[in-house]
């Protein structure tokens, strides 16, 4: 990628992130709060209903609102993880994984080795977005109930491995069928951040996505 292309792509992504941040805050502070009020109101009504069919109905409605609230919260975190700036990359991804597991039912075991180093917001966001893409791909395609995320902090390098033991895929076939937009997006984000992506997969062998970022002290 030429320097002018990198600058152009960086500007576009940064502009997109600002708009995404605005939408995420509206979801969190507006829609989420309204849904929570609806949920607590329905729960209050259910305690005062005597007819069994109405009690069952209000429970169904409160359960639906609860699930919708959970989905909106996940979407809000997907769009803009507020903990990324305050608590760091590892904590932000760990928080996201909790919502991811409650939404998709896939257990993600996350671990870290080494001392976490401070990253710029641009680099943190690039890695966070790439990890999101990898996890969503697991939910969509891996057909598995469990996966792992492992951070390795070295003196001047961060490596994140996201692995599953799902169905895997033939990478060359994916490229031939032009179904690799998600992979391309992850590669572009990592390239702009000064990092790289490595992907290993095989049919019936699961998939491992590795994000490698050089850290300048």
From TrEMBL:
InterPro entries: HATPase_C_sf, HATPase_dom, Sensor_HK_TwoCompSys, Sig_transdc_His_kin_sub3_dim/P. Pfam families: HATPase_c, HisKA_3. It catalyses: ATP + protein L-histidine = ADP + protein N-phospho-L-histidine. Its EC number is 2.7.13.3. Residues 126-214 form the Histidine kinase/HSP90-like ATPase domain. The keyword Transferase applies. GO terms for molecular function: ATP binding; phosphorelay sensor kinase activity; protein dimerization activity. It comes from the Bacteria. Residues 21-84 form the Signal transduction histidine kinase subgroup 3 dimerisation and phosphoacceptor domain. This is histidine kinase.
